[in-house]
Amino acid sequence: MTNTPPDATLPIFPIGMVLFPGTAVPLHLFEPRYRALIADVQKGDQRFGILCAQSGVDERDLPPGRVGCVAEVTECEILPDGRANILVMGRERFALRQFVEHDALYHVAEVDWVPDGPAESPVALAVISDDVASNFKRVVKAVQVLNDDDGPLPDLPDNPAQLPWAIGAMIDIDLEARYRLLADSSPSARLNQIDGVLRKALSDVELRAAMHQKGN
Q: From residue 112, how far is each of 67, 91, 92 by CA, in Å?
């Protein structure tokens, strides 16, 4: 652990999910500690940290360096019984430094911000991101055929660094793959990771879509 001061102290919500920067997620809060958390963050900057839990690991034993994402509350509905429905937007990534003692019911931790690594070639990133976006659109179109859906395709960000997270939030991948996608500091590695998922699904879903069209 570094001896330099932490970048921030955040309320922490350990949960079995991954929030990606730039993506929105609805949450239903019912535990007393998270009712207290939302009440407190609403008095402040509307931000807390979502940290992906690990199976078999107690919340306070999550290891230093575990990467999470800042959640900014953009909508909040407090129900009569105190439960809350909220919508959060993923912001910057952080790495857990350590949990700290606090009077709050919920966890509080010192964290360090997690930037991307050294700059990569914009041209190379653009080429990879074009391929990823194309494969994603092919998958979506095939799924729409299977569902007899003629709706518009989802909007995708122009930023290659953001694209894998945007797609990752819309497709079905397992929790560990989601965590790796969040934690990777290389945009090109993230693009290649999500492209591998898309390519693996592409031939099967397009074949089923073609058979579906022939059957109609």
A: 9, 14, 11
The number of domains in the chain is: 2
What residues pair up with 89 in beta bridges, in sequence order?
Answer: 24, 72
Q: What is the pTM assigned to this prediction?
A: 0.93
Distances (CA, A) of 176 to 73, 134, 152: 25, 25, 30
Average confidence (pLDDT) over 140-161: 95
Task: Specify whether 75 is located in the same domain as 139.
Answer: no
Residues 82 and 134 both lie in one domain? no
Per-residue pLDDT for 6 more than 90?
A: no
Strand, helix or coil for residue 151: coil
Q: Is residue 67 pLDDT above 90, yes or no?
A: yes
Mean pLDDT along residues 55-75: 97
CA distance 159 to 208: 32
Q: Left (φ > 0), alpha (ψ -120 to 50) or beta: where does 143 sit?
A: alpha
DSSP string across 53-100: --TT--GGGPPTT-EEEEEEEEEEEE-TTS-EEEEEEEEEEEEEEEE-
In angstroms, rounded to a whole number, what is the distance separating the alpha carbons of residues 85 and 184? 30
CB proximity list for 98: less than 8 A, separation 6 or greater: 1, 64, 109, 110
Domain containing residue 12: CATH number: 2.30.130.40
Q: Dihedral of CA 115/166/52/30: which sign?
A: positive
Question: Do 50 and 77 lie in a common domain?
Answer: yes
For position 33, what pLDDT does the model report? 94
